[in-house]
């Protein structure tokens, strides 16, 4: 393969030996963790010419040694995986033996041990390679020999499976390997790098939608490895760990475990990028690691039904690009991501970010181009407040000002530029005929940037009537709108999130029969979605002008704004 691009050294490690781990043929198609996860990614990177721009030969795939595995796992853990793999090899049709935790969980195959050791070995080799190359570049720079230093830090991508971040240091028989994970590749790599004197401090960032309970457990009492995780939490979502106040023990108490648990679904680029700017990056810079490892799971991506989140490939690329601003050697290891096409597209964009194709979006640029949901803002503020006691940078005047400016800008942007959904108000309640407005001729962000004070353009498809415009921020209300037009008996809550008020409002809109409870639910849904004191005035006017308006699926949206005409 060709060498790295001119912007930075980027390496890829991949081995077909990891494809051998597979379920029984009749069950493999239905199980999300399958060999085609890797082949789909690898094929797309080749088709897009991205592999040709990376060095795919420098990092040699190999199995991890027992000693390397035992730096993160107990001897019982390794012995158990080895024994069950051997048992399955002798009885490959024994489904109960293959699925020790039952259908849908982790499965064993005759090649589980080999695939797990190979994945861990690839991540270990990746970590050591980027560390050594970075050290060589720094030595050359310090010696003044004239060797050109790359614009971006050296980085690498490990296309590996099975994933690893659920595998932890656990002596419970039968549960040492879980969540599709046999060995925690990233944890083994971090421990090995420190043991060999290549790094004193390692940062692990995990943006898989599932909390990396194994990684957290391994480093919960450590002070030389910091674990940061952004994940979905609550409502029995696997693995039901990673609470906000889970902050380490012993030497690692309070400072080296950082959890940001999202308690709502539907979060996307805005929320994740805000978390990077306002929480992860400031703490990461203060921690000052010599190596950054990313547990790169893509099941928070839009289109991956397991996660229920809406991060786009561009969002993952931007997070990767932001982490590169730490200017440390960085390695990404594939974790989850079970919509194969979506995952492949996300990995492709992340690879472009590593190559330098993606520009960095500054904090205020991000705030002025998107809107963060009110719930996510509250959760971020809570995490910042908790971590501020351990990381003074979060309490500095400059950072406090940044947080306030960020959320204020994002809130203003949300009220002006979010695309309008298809909310409709029943005309039977004395409202003026509905009218739709045209989209602005120029992006609203440009009006704001110029500071022209131009009249606020109305959003596309805004529905006006009775002196107000009702605007929603997501086109997902289209389903509810269709239900309303057809006289449906209910709305369609998204994945059960915030669904009660929306169902009541949708039922009212569909049937035209508004009970007092339905009116109250509709107004309550509006109130819950209008952040800030200014918007509450709009709700008051809304109650008076449209006391019976059906909000359809408004309560599913991050924000709904009532804008006076």
Features:
19 helices; alpha/beta; 9% strand; 41% helix; disordered N terminus; seven-stranded parallel β-sheet; 565 residues
Could you spell the SSE succession in H and E letters? Answer: EHHHHHHEHEHEEHEHEHHHHEHEEHHHHE
Output the strand order for the largest sheet: 1-2-7-6-3-4-5
Q: Count every helix, treating DSSP H or I runs of 4 or more residues as helices.
A: 19
Measured between the Cα atoms of the first and last residue, the distance is: 60 Å
Shape: globular
Percent range for β-strand residues: 5-15%
What characterizes the major β-sheet?
7 strands, parallel
Helical content, roughly? Answer: 40-55%
Structural class: alpha/beta
Overall strand count: 11
What's the pLDDT, averaged over the residues?
77
Q: Spans with pLDDT under 50 lasting ≥5 residues?
A: 1-7, 417-565
The rounded Rg comes to 25 Å
